[in-house]
Write a structure and sequence with these properties.
Elements (H helix, E strand, L loop, with lengths): L1 E11 L7 E6 L20 E4 L9 H5 L12 H5 L5 E4 L1 E4 H9 L2 H7 L2 E5 L7 H13 L3 E6 L5 H7 L5 E5 L5 H8 L4 H11 L4 E8 L7 H13 L5 E6 L5 H6 L12 H8 L4
Parallel strand pairs: 2-6, 6-7, 7-8, 8-9, 9-10
Antiparallel strand pairs: 1-2, 1-5, 3-4
Length: about 280
Amino acid sequence: MKATIFDIERNSYVDGPGIRTTVFFKGCNLRCVWCHNPESQSPKPQMMFYKNKCTGCGKCKERCPNNLEKCGLCGKCTLYCPHDAREICGKEYTVDEVIREILKDKAFYDNSDGGVTFSGGECMLQIDFLEEILKECKKNGIHTAVDTAGYVQFEYFERILRFTDLFLYDIKCFDSEKHKQYTGVGNESILENLKRLLTTKKSVWIRIPIIPMVNDTEEELQKIKSFLEACQSPKKIELLPYHAMGEHKYEAIGKEVQMFAVPSEEKMMRLKKIFS
């Protein structure tokens, strides 16, 4: 069994408690216009070309069997580029290969009450692999977290409940039409899945990306708060300010980027008070 993964990030402090390793699965069924990992959206490996790093030396073209006219993802151009202007995003891993990478940092998890977080993209789209790797983590005594946007059938949650200690659950917008406008899909099933997940008594952290001119109003967040209060309350709510650190990736995969302003610290403090 294999899954396509585009990054394994060590020493993360933002994807759950303690020191964590975050495994990023490739492929997503949302198209958030503010996505800071646009390379995660396609489920297939792809070439990324960072034009600002390229000096025009021509070594990639010399080595490419197709003279750069089409890409077969052989990787020769990445090996011979002296400035790392090209890289293949996405690689197939077996369960054993991923668990070996995770276990390298088990001492850090144990000393910090940390663990491993499976993210994306949408990691639950590769549910067979996710279920197996979660089982392996629990066999090795590792705390597990699943970071999801919730746009899957609830059966997928049921399959992994026993092996997941924490769910990091995204809420983008409360209004379904607005949600569809900015992510490509409505949110009815996402909110219903969250409601059902909260009844399982599993630990759930809600994460809300704050995007100016999209969901950064007190009215919008008050609606989300009221919804959560009507459900079984989550353990924690995090507001995550939009950042521009992923904008250079759009050009690297040949996509246009939509720019947003970064919310001020003052605004973030005001919005956080709604939930405090």
